[in-house]
């Protein structure tokens, strides 16, 4: 198929160790492609499909890309002006965009942020109790896009009453219950509120990243491309009022109950507090080889290595085998021949190739 082809600028190819992904950030979807095809598509100019020598492979790829509107065929070279390259920078006018709090939080926190624009507020509570309802009433007039509730203990007998109670709060976007019976539907929608039910305990949920945590949209992509998608613009206030970067962090930077508003903003604007938020996945061992790196929400605490950041706790996805932990054939990094330490990453390529062939049954 001859012609002039340009890539939809909202469909972005990202290369991984074994395969690449096209992020469709407008339609919130993604497509796997070969790394060889990534090399062809990763251009803002006209696409040279002649780099693919096999005629059938080339035609099949073009047909697929046209069908999904990932590429467009144009009639003349000057049509290129209609396809303006996506600017991948991120303007960050707000110091604080995401907050995680507990239902027993000192209400002074909401006085601190009353002039701030918060995209997402997550509230953790043992149950739908008076503390939580008081918080929801307190924040009703604040400039918050979405409120996510994380309820540690599910009470099936009270669910109908709880559902009705929460229906009056317009900011609540989703309610996540933990420790649920496996017979309960995983998702329900009532009055524009998503109710999600998890068998696992919240203490386990907050530690582990899964395929369900992948997010594909323009805002998340641009944040992940420039910063750390979990730590950037985030503050976490634990049940004792300690100010932290995130749920799994040990270090605290002060206590909400003993500081002023000025002190609070001095803390979250400090270089020490904001350091984790400025980490890019390309500067993180293993993550830099992962095709999902700009769509994940990874709450693991990064550690600073000799040249790059790294994680002491493994992710649930092994990008060197292209396998998730819940999938058949998954093995961890060490067993795959990949060693990650403070000093860097070492890959036993022969061992990795053998494990990959075994996992994917390539003879």
Automatic annotation (TrEMBL):
<protein>
    <recommendedName>
        <fullName>Grasp-with-spasm system SPASM domain peptide maturase</fullName>
    </recommendedName>
</protein>
């Amino acid at each position: 198929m001859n012609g002039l082809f340009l890539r939809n600028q909202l469909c972005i190819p990202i290369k991984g160790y074994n395969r690449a992904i096209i992020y469709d950030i407008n339609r919130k979807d993604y497509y796997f492609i070969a790394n060889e095809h990534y090399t062809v598509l990763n251009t803002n100019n006209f696409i040279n499909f002649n780099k693919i020598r096999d005629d059938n492979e080339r035609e099949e790829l073009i047909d697929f890309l046209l069908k999904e509107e990932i590429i467009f065929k144009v009639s003349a070279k000057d049509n290129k002006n209609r396809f303006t390259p996506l600017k991948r920078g991120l303007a960050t006018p707000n110091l604080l965009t995401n907050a995680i709090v507990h239902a027993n939080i000192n209400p002074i926190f909401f006085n601190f942020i009353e002039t701030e624009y918060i995209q997402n507020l997550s509230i953790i509570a043992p149950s739908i109790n008076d503390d939580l309802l008081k918080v929801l009433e307190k924040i009703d007039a604040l400039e918050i896009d979405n409120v996510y509730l994380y309820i540690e203990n599910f009470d099936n007998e009270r669910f109908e009453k709880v559902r009705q109670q929460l229906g009056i709060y317009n900011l609540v976007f989703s309610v996540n219950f933990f420790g649920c019976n496996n017979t309960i539907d995983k998702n329900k929608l009532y009055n524009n509120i998503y109710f999600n039910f998890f068998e696992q305990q919240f203490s386990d949920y907050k530690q582990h990243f899964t395929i369900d945590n992948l997010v594909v949209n323009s805002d998340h992509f641009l944040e992940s491309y420039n910063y750390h998608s979990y730590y950037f613009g985030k503050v976490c206030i634990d049940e004792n009022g300690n100010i932290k970067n995130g749920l799994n962090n040990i270090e605290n930077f002060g206590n909400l109950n003993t500081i002023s508003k000025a002190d609070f903003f001095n803390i979250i604007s400090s270089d020490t507090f904001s350091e984790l938020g400025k980490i890019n996945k390309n500067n993180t061992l293993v993550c830099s080889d992962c095709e999902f790196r700009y769509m994940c929400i990874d709450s693991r605490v990064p550690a600073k290595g000799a040249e790059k950041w790294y994680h002491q706790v493994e992710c649930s996805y092994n990008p060197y085998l292209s396998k998730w932990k819940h999938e058949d054939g998954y093995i961890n990094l060490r067993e795959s021949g990949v060693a990650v330490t403070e000093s860097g990453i070492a890959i036993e390529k022969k061992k990795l190739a053998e494990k990959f062939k075994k996992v994917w049954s390539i003879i």
